[in-house]
Amino acid sequence: MSPEPKTPPRVQAPPTSRDSELAATVKALVLAGDRDAARERFADLVTRQQRRAVRIAYNYLRDAHDADEAVQDAFLKVFTHITSYREEYPFEVWFTRILVNGCLDLRKARTRRLRWALPMSAQPNMSAPPEPAAQQPSPEDRLMSSERAQQITSAVEQLPDRQRLVFTLCHISEHTTSEVSQALGLSEATVRVHLFRAVRKLRKLLAAP
């Protein structure tokens, strides 16, 4: 008598986050044509994501104005394309991808602007008014605006997409590897491998002359 085949264990899906539930609700309202209600629920989603989004954007851009611009643009893109959101994926990951890509685009645009900008000192017969005395930055501000911080940001930009996303979620959004594994649908061991490779590559990039 042959043994009965064993039933493979069921893999339990990660619990849906509150933000993912809100995003699904906004999507359903937009598809139903009720955009006013969708905007109201989306405002709740913005409130929940705002602080984390600003922290991520500032880490990439190192400028408060640019970071705010990137965050607002990301929220606009999310609402505009909410019908393409797939409910089986965590909203936080989908939003982070959009935000990080927007930050990288803004960095490139800013670099192009600076490349073609004419320094004020090179313009003849123009005298700028004296600048007001600036408030002395705190040690934390000096660290954030340091050349080393710029080097780290540029190095993170060079990481492969998956490594950059894992690094951003773990070190900037401050999620645990367990939370990231659930968010990305990967095993925690795979997340740790991506994180290890990201850190190793960052060390090589930062050590390069």
Descriptive notes:
With 209 residues, the chain is mainly α. Helices cover 67% and strands 0% of the residues. It contains 9 helices and no strands. It has helices at residues 18-31, 35-61, 64-80, 91-116, 139-144, 147-157, 161-172, 177-184, 188-207. The longest helix is centred in the first third of the chain and has 27 residues, at 35-61. The chain is globular. The model is unreliable at 7-13 and 116-134 (pLDDT under 50).
Please tag this protein with its features.
209 residues, mainly alpha, 9 helices, 67% helix
Would you tell me the structural class of the helices and strands? mainly alpha
Please describe the biggest sheet, giving its number of strands, its sense, and whether it closes into a barrel: none
Number of strands: 0
Q: What is the overall number of helices?
A: 9
Percent of residues in helices comes to 55-70%
Using only C-alpha atoms, the radius of gyration works out to: 22 Å
Quote the distance from N terminus to C terminus.
Answer: 70 Å
- Average pLDDT works out at 79
Overall 3D geometry? globular
Q: Can you tell me the residue ranges where pLDDT is under 50 for at least 5 consecutive residues? A: 7-13, 116-134
Strand content: under 5%
Helix and strand sequence: HHHHHHHHH
Describe, in short, the structure shown:
The protein has 209 residues and is mostly helical. It contains 9 helices and no strands.
Task: Record the SSE blueprint.
Elements: H1 18-31, H2 35-61, H3 64-80, H4 91-116, H5 139-144, H6 147-157, H7 161-172, H8 177-184, H9 188-207
Helix pairs in contact: 1-2, 2-3, 2-4, 3-4, 6-9, 7-9, 8-9
